[in-house]
Specification:
Helices cover 14% and strands 30% of the residues. It is α/β, with parallel strands linked by helices and 210 residues long. The chain has two domains: 3-85, Rossmann fold (3-Layer(aba) Sandwich); 94-203, UDP N-Acetylglucosamine Acyltransferase, domain 1. An eight-stranded mixed beta sheet has the order 6-9-12-15-18-21-23-24, with no helix packed on it. The protein has a six-stranded parallel beta sheet with strand order 7-10-13-16-19-22, with no helix packed on it. A hairpin with a 2-residue loop joins strand 3 (41-42) and strand 4. The longest helix has 13 residues, at 11-23. It starts with a strand and ends with a strand.
Length: 210
């Protein structure tokens, strides 16, 4: 059994903690949260410090590995925290048992794969990525580090999504598409050509909004 700590005790952190404890032999033993008082109990899990306490608490053997549960509105913070902790604290990678991960796919450290996903042959999901429920990622596609993939996203083959992207619920990305870093695709967006400039894109097919 691994003792897992989660950075972020909000709804996302609580949800990830629930899935870990319901679907694996591991136990979430602590939250870190800059916005909660020390020793607050959330979903029966104590807050043992803020973000600056993670390395110290790991050195004190309070936990074995950490996950970052910061939502899509703060992907820059999520990236900064990951880089700060990399090489100093082990990251936990959680893949729900109901998801299918092809043996030729790779999942980066600190990433979370929610229930009901299909990750196909030669897919590469990089570090610190969240893939929400019922997503499908077809062969030879790449999801860049620190990205957030919302529920029921369909990504075709040979797609390259760069880092810190947000792909909205029920979006569809056709094959051989590249999406620039720090791009957001609105809910139900359909991407049929490369996106070279970061920003918010919505519609079918998607168009640049801002």
């Amino acid at each position: 059994m691994k003792r897992i700590a989660i950075i972020g005790s909000g709804h996302l952190g609580q949800q990830i903690a629930y899935h870990i404890q319901q679907d694996s032999g591991d136990k979430v033993v602590a939250f870190f949260d800059d916005f909660q008082p020390l020793s607050t109990i959330i979903s029966q899990i104590p807050v043992i410090g803020g973000n600056d306490d993670v390395i110290t608490k790991y050195q004190q053997d309070e936990f074995d590995a950490v996950l970052i549960a910061i939502g899509y509105k703060h992907l820059g913070v999520k990236k900064e925290l990951f880089q700060k902790l990399a090489g100093k604290v082990p990251f936990h990678t959680f893949i729900h048992s109901s998801s299918y991960i092809d043996p030729a796919a790779s999942i980066g450290q600190g990433s979370v794969i929610y229930p009901g996903c299909v990750i196909d042959q030669h897919v590469r999901i990089e570090e610190n990525v969240l893939v929400n429920i019922s997503c499908s990622v077809a062969h030879d596609s790449v999801i860049g580090s620190h990205s957030f993939i919302s529920p029921s996203v369909a990504i075709a083959g040979f797609v390259n999504i760069k880092e810190q992207c947000i792909i909205g619920i029920n979006s569809t990305i056709i094959d051989h598409i590249t999406i620039a870093a720090q791009t957001q695709i609105g809910g139900a967006g359909v991407v049929i050509k490369n996106i070279d400039e970061p920003g918010l894109y919505v519609g079918n097919p998607v168009k640049f909004i801002r």
